[in-house]
User: What shape does this take?
Amino acid sequence: MSWSVVTENLPYLLRGTVSTVAIAAGVVVVGTAGGVVVGLLRFVPGRVLAAAVGWVVEVVRAVPLLLLIFFIFFGLPAIGLKIPTFPAAVLAMSLWMTVNTAEVVRGGIQSIPHGQLEAARSTGLSGLQAMRYVIFPQAVRRMIPPFVGLCTILVKDTSLAAIIGVFELTRAAQETIERTFRSFEIYLAAAAIYFAICFPLTQLAQRAEARLQRP
Amino acid sequence: MTGTAYSFAWAAVWQGLPYLLEGAGLTILISLASMALALAVGTLMAALSQAPGRVLPRLVRAYVEVFRNTPLLIQIFIVYFGLPQIGLKLSPFSSGMWALVLYTAAYNTEILRAGLEAVPKGQHEAVRSTGLTEFQAMRYVIVPQALRISLPALGNNLVSLMKNSSLVSVIGMVELMFVANDISFNNFRSFEIYGAAAVLYVALVLLLTRALHVTERRLALAR
Assistant: This one.
């Protein structure tokens, strides 16, 4: 085993890391915005829309992310919709992040006792105002731990983009291995970099969870 | 040829269906087998996390954090491409299984450890005072309760495992995702074939989720 191969190729791996972080950050922004909207749609008055949104979320969540990526990258061109690798991967991951965030939002809102809504309504607030000023602010606190957990999974899952050829950390590792043939050291180095990003996030989620348990 | 592209497309799904169903069957088998092994590893690790002294619990902690905080895809690559370099060559099947089991077991360890710690400490002392040995107390009183507490989270982990098992297609292990790739790279009907594979995954996951709900309700304590 030679570790000099890692130090020599570290700058390239770090370029991949920058790309990984940028992709994850972009997807978090899009997915959070989408997820909050979709999650809130499940609480609009009238059963049909809420139920339909619930079904779509459940169905999309059941599809593996790799299949979402392949469907968008290989499947859509077959019906004439050609999307390059990078936007295809980002689109698939944003869709994934949206439905999973929507589920976190739903869980957070449902964890607030129903009496709170009734109390808010009885003070004369409209349904929308009650959600905006009473329910949602309380629910957000409970959404934070699972949401940070979701972000950790997303960072790990950006590695799937490498399979269709998007340049990020895993792809950078693969390209380095094509040059050096040192797969063991390089993949371990890539794993260490992912760990350096994800471990603090996991700790953050745990701390937020512990804080929530305290009264 | 007068048929529309659409009717041809459905024929492609129809032709591929037996092969896709075979893939779905393999996905179920791989998920259940990996989960069984991951439960064994997870139970052992969770027990070790309760061991006296600092060394064993810390080693378990390190295992859990390393495997939870690195991508499964990288773990699969390390096992399949990395280990041969240090003289350990495994087939795509064993590489895929090992990676899935170790990754899933890390989550199981954490779930079962939390379950064990959720059983009130007083119970342990109470049981020991009735004359049961340490092992008997764990076997008959603590572990059954811990398992019941852990069940919903273990079920969620099984659902994740079923979806995650699609990643082993990348190293050539045959399951639903591999079959979908195989068919669509040959007949170029990727839209319909990946669509059909998605329908099968949704069916598998929804069936599993319902089955887990029923089990949870059956095992729930009478209130």
